[in-house]
C-alpha cells in the first residue's frame, strides 16, 4: 500500500491578505532584531548579550539553534511516519510540517552565524585541511548544512507546482525516494549529536544530564517534539485560517507520539538509575527543580491525552503538544545552561537585547510561514474536508 | 574506570542495535597520554610569594593589554584569566589568615593558566582544528586564522581556560601557549623566567614530575635545594643525587643560564601532584599545602571526557559504516513507499 492509494485533498494556497496585525507585529520584531544585530556586528557579542567566559553559550545557541532545530523536526517525524513506516494516511501533514522544518533549520543555520565570534572564518568548517573529525560539532555542522539542502529539494516541488514546471517536477520525483531517505537519516545523525556535544564537557554538566546515553535521549525527544510541533501548528493554523482541524490524522498521530514518549521515559529513567544519578535529584537546588519540571512536562501528556477520548479533543492535543515542546526545550536548556557549571562563580541570564533577537528569529519563522501558506500550495485544499 | 567503560560499551552497543538493527564492534578510545618530550610547568604553591611578576611578564610576552578592576585605573588588576589575561595568581583566604599554606586560619596562592592536558577537551571539541596539540612538545596551540569563534573550547575545558574577547567585534580566543613563540629564540615561558622563587618552574613534564615527587618525599620543615627558572635534565639528576652526566646541563636550543639553585625550607605538602593523573595527565603540574579543591582546582577523573566523546562519535560514525548502512535500509524502504509522482495526488 502506498501513500497514493489514500484519497487526499490536493494542497492549495490559502490565499487572503499578507498584511494584517500578526504579520505587522512580526515585521516590527524582525526590524528590532536587525538593529540589535547591527550593534552586535559593530561592537562585538558582549555589547548586546550577557554571555561571559563561564557561560560562553547563551540562548542564541541553546534556544535558537538547539531548541529551534528540534522544533523543526516536524518534517522529519511526519516524513518518517509516512514514507518509512508507510502510514500514507498522514500524507496531508507532510507539506506544512516540511515547510516549518525548512524555516526552522534555515534560521538555525543563520542564527549560528550571528553567534559566531569569527564568522568570516566559517569556511574552515567545510575545508578538508581544517576539519576535525573528532569534533562532535563538526559532525553537527556538516549534517545540518546537508539537511538544509535536502529539505529545500524535498520542498522544491511546491515551488515547481506554483510556477508550472511540471516536467522538472516529474524528473525530480523519480529520485525523491532517495532524497526522502537522506532527509530521514540526517536529522537522526545531527539531532543525536546535538546531545553528544555536551559529553566532552564532562563533570561540568550535572550528573542528572551528563550521560553517554544523551545521543539517544536527544534523538527520541527530537522525534517527540516533531510530532508535538505538528499538533501545535495544525491547531494554530486551523484557528488562524478558520479551517477545519485534521482531527482524523492528529488523534492517531498523538498516539504514535505517546509511544515514542514512553520509550524515551524508559531510557531516561533507566539511565539515571543505572548510573546511580537519581539520588542527586532529591536535594534542593535550581538544578533539581528544573529536573523535576522537565520530567513533569514529559509525564503530564499521559494524563492529558492518554486516552482515545482525550485525544479526540483538539484543545487537549494542543496543550499536550505545547507541554512536550516545552519538555524537550527544558531538557536542552538544563544540560547546556542550568546544569552547566564551569566554576569561578559566573552567572548568566540573557539580556533584553539577546532575548529580542531570539524573539525576532521566531517572528521571521511566523512571517515566512504565513506568506508561503497563503501564496504557495502547502496546506490541503479546504473544500475536501467540508 | 572499568565499570564506566563497560557501561559505555554496553550503552553504545545497545544504541547500535537500535540504530542499525545489527551489531558493530565497539572500541573504547583510550585517554591520550602526555607525549614523552612534553614541555610544561611545575607550580609549587608553597614557594609562591604572590608577587605576580609572572602575571606581568605573561602580559608583556603575549602583548596583552591591562585590565582594570579598580576605580583609579592605575595598573593591571585582572580578577580571572580572560581573553586578555592568560595567567593570574589567585589567593585563598581563611579565618585570621595567619599561616601561609594552612587550610584553616591561613592563606595560599594558586596559579591559574592552561594545564596543557595530555588529552585536551578543547582540541577534541574544536570543529576546525584551530586548537591543536603539538605532537612533540604537547603544547596546546591556538590558530586565530582558522578559529570561527564558536567558543565550544571555552565551554569544554574543565579548568575554564580558553577565554573569548566578548567586547571585541573581531574577538579571539586567548590562552597560555607556554610562550611557544619565544622558544625559537631560546626563551622559555615568561612566567617561569621571572619567578623569583622558582615557584613556577619550566621544563620537560617528565623531569618536573620527578622533581615534584622528590619534594613530596621530603620531611616538612627540613632544608633542601630548589631550582629556579628552567629545570634541566642534568640539574634534576643532581637534585636526585645522581651524576648529572656529560653535557646534560644544557638542552639544545635553550638559552644559557647560570645555576640559580638555592636552599629553602620544605613546605607542608598535600601528598598529591595535581596534573599527574587528572584527565589522564596534564603537562603543567601543581603542588599545594591546601587541598586542591579549596584553591579552585576541580576534582577530575583519571580519564578524559574527550575519550568518552570520541568513543561515542567514532562508534556511531567510524568509517561512515553505520550511516551508510542505515541510509541503504531507509532508501530501500522509501523506494517501496514513495511513488515517482509523489505530490500529484489528483
Task: Give a structural overview.
Helix content of chain A is 65%, strand content 0%. Chain A is an all-alpha fold. Chain A is built from 14 helices and no strands. Chain A has two domains: 1-197 and 353-386, no CATH class; 201-344, no CATH class. Chain B has 346 residues and is α/β, with parallel strands linked by helices. Chain B has two domains: 2-30 and 306-330, no CATH class; 39-302, Alpha-Beta Plaits. In chain B, the strands form five sheets. Chain B has a four-stranded mixed beta sheet with strand order 11-9-1-13. A three-stranded mixed beta sheet of chain B has the order 2-4-3, with no helix packed on it. Chain B has a two-stranded antiparallel ribbon with strand order 5-6. The radius of gyration of chain B is 25 Å and the shape is globular. The model of chain B is unreliable at 13-25 (pLDDT under 50). At the A-B interface, helix 1, helix 3, helix 5, helix 6 and helix 7 of A face helix 1, helix 3, helix 4, strand 7 and helix 8 of B.
Amino acid at each position: 500500500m502506498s501513500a497514493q492509494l489514500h484519497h487526499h485533498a490536493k494542497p492549495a494556497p490559502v490565499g487572503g491578505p499578507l498584511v494584517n496585525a500578526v504579520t505587522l507585529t512580526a515585521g516590527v520584531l524582525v526590524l528590532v532584531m536587525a538593529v540589535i544585530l547591527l550593534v552586535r556586528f559593530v561592537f562585538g557579542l558582549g555589547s548586546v548579550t550577557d554571555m561571559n567566559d563561564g557561560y560562553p553559550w547563551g540562548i542564541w545557541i541553546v534556544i535558537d539553534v538547539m531548541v529551534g532545530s528540534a522544533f523543526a523536526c516536524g518534517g522529519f517525524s511526519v516524513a518518517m511516519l509516512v514514507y518509512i513506516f508507510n502510514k500514507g494516511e498522514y500524507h496531508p501533514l507532510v507539506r506544512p510540517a516540511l515547510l516549518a522544518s525548512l524555516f526552522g533549520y534555515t534560521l538555525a543555520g543563520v542564527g549560528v552565524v550571528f553567534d559566531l565570534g569569527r564568522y568570516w572564518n566559517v569556511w574552515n568548517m567545510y575545508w578538508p585541511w581544517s576539519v576535525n573529525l573528532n569534533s562532535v560539532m563538526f559532525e553537527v555542522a556538516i549534517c545540518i548544512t546537508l539537511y538544509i539542502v535536502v529539505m529545500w529539494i524535498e520542498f522544491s516541488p511546491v515551488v515547481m507546482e506554483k510556477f508550472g514546471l511540471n516536467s522538472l517536477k516529474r524528473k525530480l520525483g523519480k529520485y525523491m525516494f532517495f532524497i526522502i531517505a537522506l532527509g530521514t537519516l540526517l536529522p537522526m545523525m545531527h539531532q543525536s549529536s546535538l546531545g553528544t556535544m555536551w559529553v566532552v564537557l564532562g563533570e561540568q554538566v550535572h550528573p542528572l544530564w551528563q550521560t553517554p546515553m544523551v545521543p539517544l535521549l536527544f534523538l527520541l525527544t527530537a522525534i517527540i517534539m516533531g510530532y508535538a510541533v505538528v499538533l501545535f501548528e495544525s491547531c494554530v493554523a486551523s484557528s488562524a485560517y478558520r479551517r477545519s482541524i485534521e482531527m482524523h490524522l492528529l488523534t492517531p498521530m498523538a498516539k504514535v507520539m505517546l509511544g515514542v514518549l514512553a520509550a524515551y521515559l524508559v531510557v531516561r529513567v533507566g539511565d539515571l538509575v543505572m548510573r546511580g544519578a537519581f539520588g542527586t535529584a532529591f536535594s534542593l537546588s535550581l538544578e533539581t527543580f528544573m529536573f523535576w519540571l522537565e520530567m513533569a512536562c514529559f509525564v503530564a501528556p499521559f494524563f492529558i491525552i492518554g486516552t482515545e477520548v482525550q485525544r479526540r479533543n483538539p484543545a487537549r492535543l494542543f496543550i499536550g503538544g505545547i507541554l512536550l515542546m516545552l519538555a524537550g526545550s527544558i531538557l536542552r536548556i538544563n544540560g547546556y545552561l542550568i546544569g552547566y557549571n564551569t566554576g569561578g562563580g559566573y552567572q548568566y541570564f540573557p539580556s533584553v537585547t539577546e532575548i529580542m533577537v531570539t524573539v525576532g528569529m521566531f517572528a521571521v519563522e511566523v512571517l515566512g510561514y504565513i506568506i508561503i501558506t497563503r501564496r504557495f500550495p502547502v496546506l490541503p485544499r479546504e473544500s475536501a474536508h467540508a | 574506570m572499568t565499570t564506566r567503560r563497560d557501561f559505555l560499551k554496553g550503552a553504545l552497543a545497545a544504541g547500535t542495535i537500535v540504530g542499525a538493527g545489527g551489531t558493530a564492534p565497539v572500541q573504547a578510545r583510550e585517554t591520550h597520554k602526555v607525549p614523552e618530550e612534553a614541555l610544561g610547568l611545575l607550580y609549587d604553591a608553597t614557594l609562591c610569594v604572590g608577587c605576580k611578576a609572572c602575571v606581568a611578564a605573561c602580559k608583556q610576552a603575549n602583548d596583552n593589554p591591562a585590565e582594570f578592576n579598580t576605580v583609579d585605573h592605575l595598573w593591571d588588576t585582572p580578577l580571572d584569566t580572560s581573553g586578555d589575561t592568560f595567567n593570574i595568581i589567585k589567593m585563598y583566604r581563611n579565618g585570621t589568615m595567619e599561616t601561609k599554606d594552612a587550610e584553616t586560619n591561613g592563606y595560599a596562592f594558586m596559579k591559574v593558566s592552561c594545564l596543557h592536558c595530555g588529552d585536551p577537551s578543547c582540541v577534541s571539541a574544536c570543529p576546525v582544528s584551530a586548537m591543536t596539540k603539538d605532537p612533540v612538545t604537547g603544547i596546546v596551540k591556538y590558530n586565530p586564522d582558522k578559529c570561527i569563534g564558536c567558543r565550544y573550547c571555552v565551554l569544554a575545558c574543565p579548568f575554564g581556560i580558553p577565554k573569548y574577547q566578548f567586547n571585541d567585534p573581531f574577538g579571539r580566543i586567548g590562552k597560555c601557549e607556554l610562550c611557544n613563540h619565544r622558544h625559537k629564540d631560546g626563551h622559555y615561558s615568561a612566567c617561569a623566567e621571572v619567578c623569583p622563587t622558582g615557584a613556577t618552574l619550566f621544563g620537560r613534564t617528565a623531569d618536573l614530575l620527578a622533581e615534584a615527587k622528590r619534594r613530596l618525599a621530603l620531611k616538612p620543615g627540613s632544608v633542601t635545594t630548589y631550582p629556579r627558572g628552567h629545570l634541566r635534565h642534568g640539574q634534576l639528576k643532581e637534585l636526585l643525587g645522581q651524576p648529572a652526566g656529560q653535557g646534560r646541563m644544557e638542552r639544545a636550543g635553550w638559552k644559557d643560564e647560570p645555576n640559580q639553585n638555592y636552599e629553602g625550607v620544605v613546605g607542608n605538602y598535600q601528598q598529591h601532584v595535581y596534573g599527574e593523573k587528572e584527565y589522564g595527565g596534564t603537562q603543567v603540574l601543581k603542588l599545594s599545602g591546601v587541598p586542591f579543591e579549596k584553591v579552585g582546582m576541580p576534582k577530575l577523573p583519571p580519564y578524559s571526557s574527550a575519550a568518552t566523546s570520541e568513543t561515542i562519535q567514532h562508534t556511531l560514525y567510524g568509517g561512515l559504516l553505520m550511516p551508510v548502512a542505515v541510509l541503504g535500509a531507509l532508501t530501500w524502504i522509501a523506494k517501496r513507499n514513495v511513488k515517482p509522482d509523489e505530490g500529484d495526488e489528483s
